[in-house]
Amino acid sequence: MAGYELSERQEPLAATPRGSGSGASYALFVATLVNVLGIGAVIPVLPLFVKGPIGGGDVAVGLVIGAFSVTGILMRPIAGRIADKRGRKLVHITGIAIAALGAALIFVPAGVTGLIISRLLVGTGEGWVYTAGITWIVDLAPVEGRARVVGLFGLSVWGGITIGAVLGSVILSAAGYEAVWAFAVIAPLIALLIASQIPAAQATAQSASEELAEAELVGGELEARPAPSAAVIASRNQRGLLRWVPSSALWPGTALAMVALAYGSFMSFVVLLLDFEGIGNGALVFTAFTAAFVITRLLFSSVPDRIGSRPTVLAAGLVQAIGMLIVALAGSLPLVLVGAVLSGAGMSLVFPALAVIVIENTDDSRRATALGAFLAFFDIGVGVGAPFAGVIASLGTGNNYAAAFIAAAAISAGGAMLGFFGTGGNRKIRHG
Hints:
Layout (H helix, E strand, L loop, with lengths): L20 H22 L3 H6 L6 H29 L1 H17 L6 H30 L5 H30 L1 H20 L11 H10 L12 H5 L12 H30 L5 H19 L2 H5 L1 H21 L3 H28 L6 H28 L6 H21 L11
Helix pairs in contact: 1-5, 1-6, 1-7, 3-4, 3-5, 3-15, 4-5, 4-7, 5-6, 5-15, 6-7, 6-11, 6-14, 10-11, 10-13, 10-14, 10-15, 10-16, 11-14, 13-14, 13-16, 15-16
């Protein structure tokens, strides 16, 4: 009809009842946090259990702990595709159930093999929960607040792991291993109950005819909307490997992996670096990093919504790299703490900014697939970070921890620049 300029909506229309988005988002935060509490509680306890009652060595500890990440990486893209086809809620609650089952298998006396199987299942569940959850929360959120909800959703995971680790240690001291395993099962069951009550929010795009009919029914005028970007259009009809790793997730994911490599290096070797330099206080430095991460995410998670995702990635990634350099070159604890704070603050904003780039350049029908692949890049970066830093540190005379940190900082800076220059399809969201 004349007088109307029709184009597909670039943003999804959630099927959530009006006014229910905020409450549903809050419930999803809580469900995810409670589920991750169970996962976090086991993390500091498992190494002690493997080397104690099980009688395994360091290799066994590495296999048990690493199994979680393996299935997490593999399952995220799969979870994303299923979530796009079958719904975010179904995948989310199924993931919680799988995590609960994996946690329960710890009670089966099957040695190291049984623990590995348990962790593989828990990793699978976590991969499903987080991938579906982050897509679900985006569906529930208003367009102008996507970066903020993505950032806060990430805090539900970080907070769950941090608090859960403390709870696990306390429970172990008070009641023993079996009590920790029981908590790891009960937590996801409670999360399952909460998540089952949250309304589904399938992202579906209205057709042009439906959009026109809606406008005519209300007697209003159909606002002209910009046509979908080339990246969005390209994401709709991809084949082969791109079905599992959409092109919209490839460059942002690569940038994230590069930044995450620095994070993995920091978390794995900062204590050894500080001990080698005679500074010590590794726990305090960890605390500074985590506190900066959390506070930045709480106070500044809307920055990508305000200034644009690409500038945020560039600035935050460079801040993280500078923090790594300060940690590597500092000769005193105060300077190391400054570096840790900068690293934590920078890392905190890189993820949600890159996630929004993926969201804005992916067709609605493939959003979960793209985010699942994107999340897998983070796991890859963290997983590569520790051995990468180890190899660099072992070169020459050995104990080259500062060199490892400098190399990781350079790669992180490269990731920040890739996130800015290699994701040009993204643009700042304009409100109003």
